[in-house]
Write a structure and sequence with these properties.
This protein is α/β, with parallel strands linked by helices. Helix content is 40%, strand content 13%. The structure holds pyridoxal-5'-phosphate (PLP). Pyridoxal-5'-phosphate binds next to helix 4 and helix 5.
Amino acid sequence: MSKPEYPPPPYRVKTVEMMERKSREERQKAIKEAGYNTFLLDSEDVYIDLLTDSGTSAMSDEQWAGLMKGDEAYAGSDNWYNLENTVQKLYGFDYVVPTHQGRGAENLISQVLISEGDYVPGNMYFTTTRTHIELNGGEFVDVIIDEGHNPQSSHEFKGNVDLEKYEELIRNVGPENIPYINIGVTVNMAGGQPVSMNNLKKVSELSRENDIKVIYDATRCVENAYFIKEREEGYEDKTIKEILREMMSYADGCTMSGKKDCLVNIGGFLAVDDEDTYREATQLVVVYEGMSTYGGMAGRDMEAMARGLREAVNYDYVNHRVKQVEYLGERLLEEDVPIITPVGGHAVFLDAKKFLPHLQQDELPAQTLAAEIYVESGVRSMERGIVSAGRAEDGSHNYPELETVRLTIPRRVYTRPHLDVAADAIIDLYAESEDISGLKFVYEPPVLRFFTARFEKLD
Ligand SMILES: Cc1ncc(COP(=O)(O)O)c(C=O)c1O
């Protein structure tokens, strides 16, 4: 079998951070004390941390240098103007509102646009996005194509919106009850799957005909632009920057978690085209985040984000990043470990229903598998299945079709041997997976339960 492609990193190492692998006994103790929830493990107990790509990027020397240029004035910081200008140039929106991270922007846009009883369609839910929609009286409606829920479908743009589902919703509830459609580019919960330019264009046309705004969750929009370049006809010779600008031209605004494709450890923003939405958002930002020229970020954080935004649209960077993720996926596929294919932009998602077929979904297969991977190897991953999906209004669990464990690759942090450690451990675990028993809840918070829930082993 040919070796998966792995381009050399387009950077070299200047600073190192030492890491240590605890013994198996120590890991067993640590996961038990963490209630079998990998979110509750201490960082020092983790060897290779694939919990998330959120806020875990390595910054460049340029970004670190930028921290020293932090203008920490309460109002009108230089770094704010640099950030605002960078977002306007790269994304094309006229108005930018800074926030401490992505969910800050989600809070603002949900409060501004949603009224009680509204519907907000989207291409599969994201945890914090849906929570803000619901807290503001809206109902999230999933309009992703069916392939997005099918781990084995080889569709190249599994994040696409199903235009018929979207049209049907408009017909059924009336366009006046849909303030906006929320489009994830890429779709995290579907496996980091992209949306095609053609689909974004069609969604925009249908939305404009019906006077419905289009708001992107732009958290991983650079990775989406990369997939368009790689997979969509007519885009192979365009730059990532050009593709990004065209993508954004089909939206009225976006929320951004700067902790991913802006290559920083903290930060976010809301960007919009429309002045009224901007005005209302700035009235709220002072309540929830901070002045509209810092929104919860220090001047130095804004500088690092402005610089990160520009670095992220470099082709060599994003090509290496996505290929690195693909490499881990290929290693697992070579040994028939069940994963979501095609591999997405930021993570490899294990198909926990197939990995642990003897467990019912109520026995929390993905939560169980994440805990077992940690014990096996010291690699931390995350559940994205029934625990993340929470409960429906009637109190019963939501049962998502995708029951996955996410192995998320931080940007510019790990090397191929680190990925091999993770792959080898998971391959070994898969060979003995029938002996693994499930988990049950012993503590369940009412909102976003996956962060802090605790579990015990079933006998
Ligand atoms: C798709 C997506 N949207 C929104 C968010 C929320 O962003 P933050 O964690 O910066 O609040 C995340 C974070 O993981 C995400 O992956």
